[in-house]
Backbone:
């Protein structure tokens, strides 16, 4: 559970899975509400856990890109049923709220 603890880690994985290699700014833009500090922290932890690969290009200005490792891809596949459960829960709760509001 340590590997996926934190509000943003699974969302970072899904962002990288959906769009492939991303630069830091692209990740931040794709995750509304995440602070720069939190994104940096989670990316460092995920890199240390072998989920994300960080590629630094020695150019001016420096360019850094993030991508998923094979380990990250396998974790994302394991999280897919949880994502489906969450989508179903949102649908169910949304339907219940509509019924309650109509009363």
Residues:
């Amino acid at each position: 559970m340590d590997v996926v603890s934190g509000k943003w880690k699974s969302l970072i994985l899904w962002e990288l899975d959906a769009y492939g290699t991303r630069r830091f700014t692209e990740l931040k833009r794709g995750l509304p509400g995440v602070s720069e500090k939190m994104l940096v922290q989670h990316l460092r932890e995920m890199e240390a856990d072998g989920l994300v690969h960080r590629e630094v290009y020695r150019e001016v200005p420096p360019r850094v890109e993030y991508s998923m490792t094979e380990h990250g891809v396998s974790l994302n596949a394991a999280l897919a049923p949880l994502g489906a459960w969450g989508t179903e829960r949102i649908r169910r709760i949304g339907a219940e709220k509509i019924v309650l509001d109509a009363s």
Summary: Strands lie at 22-23, 52-57, 63-68. The mean pLDDT is 88. The first helix runs from residue 9 to 19.
